[in-house]
Amino acid sequence: MSDPASSLTREDVAYLAHLARIDLSDAELDHLAPQLAVILESVATISSVDTAEVAPTSSAVPVENVFRADEARPSLSVEDALAGAPEVEQQRFKVPRILGEEA
Amino acid sequence: MTDLTRLSAAALAQALRTGDVTSVEATRAHLDRIAEVDPAVHAFLHVDAEGALASAAAADARRAEGVPEPALLGVPVAVKDIVATKGVPTTCGSRILEGWIPPYDATLVKRLREAGMPILGKTNMDEFAMGSSTEHSAFGPTRNPWDLDRIPGGSGGGSSAAVTAYEAPLAVGTDTGGSIRQPGAVTGTVGVKPTYGGVSRYGIVALASSLDQAGPVARSVLDAALLHDVIAGHDPMDSTSIDKPWPSMAEAARRSDITGLRIGVVRELGGEGYQTGVQARFDDAVALLVKSGAEVVEVSCPHFELALAAYYLILPSEASSNLARFDAMRFGLRVSPENVAAPSAEQVMEATRAAGFGDEVKRRIILGTYALSSGYYEAYYGQAQKVRTLVTQNFQAAFDQVDVLVSPTAPTTAFRIGEKLDDPLAMYLNDIATIPANLAGVPGMSLPSGLADEDGLPTGIQILAPALEDARLYTVGAVLEASLEEQWGGPLLDQAPALAAAAASSMDGR
Predict the structure, then answer these.
(1) Does the predicted TM-score (pTM) go above 0.90?
(2) Domain count, chain B
């Protein structure tokens, strides 16, 4: 297991921001990286308790799968569904290119 | 003529029933009050005067038909801006959703409409409900009506300030780590986080899905109960919604007997780290509960000490995943990177999220991304989930001994705007007493316990009950409220400075 007390560097934060698809500026990295290191150091206290025999909890109440009848029912109209879209073309969401330019 | 904005929701409902006032009159009175004081308070991000007045007219017409009426028919309400309202802007306090108009209503909004409650508008909040002061709203902070230089709590500071400033008799909030209860404590109002699954999450923009819960914000325990009864109940659209009938919370609030009830004071939620006046008012309130016939003991919940750390791993993890939907493709903001010809979808995504999210949202998404990343998952997210189990077990052991638990709601009174803005850790500590309930899914209420001697600002007491036992909160809360108000000679809010004058002088000062 990795050492949970390991600190977060500016480079780590830049990489994580990329994974999270947030284009952080240099100024933001300068500002946020030290704050995140402090927060991480604080939450790392979580490792102080022995949980070898403890089961994890992922939800506040017991969750089981909920089924509903497989029946058609009214849903949003195409116009409503597209009303908030940044760009629309032919009743579709229009998005920027997803492949490289040479592709 | 009586000022309609000063009436409790229960009294206003009664006046509407007897025909002394109409919903249009009551709604207009609140809209006028908003116009008068909201430039200074900034509780609202959007006021829907037209929609509210149309609903009010419909409520009056419905009453005229004489069919059996819902209890709050015609009583206006404000709704936190994280809840989808069809045709009315919903921003979550974020630039990334600026101008977004939901094409559907959240289930709880549907219930408000069915109950004939005009929706006055959408209340301000920390961006995506991340914060304890409303300062993280992209559209500017809300101010505490007790002192306009101070925070109204968060994330639901808009809802708490709206009821405090008599801009709305009732409001809806959401509580992921204390966002209903802590604002209640610092504004001298009542806020309830129901049992997880009590109120449908359908149509509420998700922050941390396993923790989020909507609930009532009000000026009295009975008013909160009346609104709770409107919005709670099973909803097939939310797979975690509890499928069982709920007892009437309003009835529970009217029960007014706690003789023999066992109350546990949580040792770990008090003392060191709690402001003197907050602790003193809490101790006074506990003494009053004893006087009312309750049996008070101290209980220990040792793992509550780790609840904050667990929460700040679980919440960012869930949030980083939930907020991935803001990708500039189907709705919301789309920003193209500068100096890039024909940018890719990924580049647009990165530029949009950089421009559309504020600092706190970025911090938490990055923290969550880290906690979930390969190699660290077990040490952080996995360990946090296990601590969550320990916190839940602490609650179970405590509720084997007592019927409800109590603690101060927040460790301090309202702090000054700007004081903790760039110190995230100090900001997180505001939720230290409220977070355990979210981790375990149990219901919690905050109600005013008085004013701190050192600064004259409101303090709150928190009541916690076992899951599904929300009604206990209302019975205990109503009894305590009655004894406190007897001491104070009326509601605590009567001691708040007159806002119009305060607002005017504060505006002059700028």
Answers:
(1) yes
(2) 1
**Phi, psi of B474, rounded to the nearest 5 degrees:** -75, -35
pLDDT value, residue A102? 53
Q: Vertex A53, ends A52 and A54: CA angle to 5°?
A: 95
Choosing from B8, B132, B155, B241, the catalytic residue is B155
Tell me the percentage of chain B whose pLDDT exceeds 90: 95
DSSP calls for B418-459? TSSTT-HHHHHGGGTTTHHHHHHT--EEEEEEEE-TTT--EE
- Supply the range of the domain harboring residue B259: 4-304+389-508
Give CA–CA dist B395/B269, Å, rounded: 13
Beta bridge partners of B460: B448
Domains of chain A, each with CATH number or no CATH:
1-48 (1.10.20)
- Peptide bond just before B155 cis, omega within 30 deg: yes
Nearest chain B CA: its distance from A45 CA (Å): 7
Q: Which residues of B touch A49 (CB under 8 A)?
A: 303, 306, 387, 390
Above 50 in pLDDT, residue B108?
yes
Note the ipTM here: 0.92
- Say which CATH number the domain at B126 has: 3.90.1300.10
pLDDT class of A58 with cuts at 50, 70, 90: confident
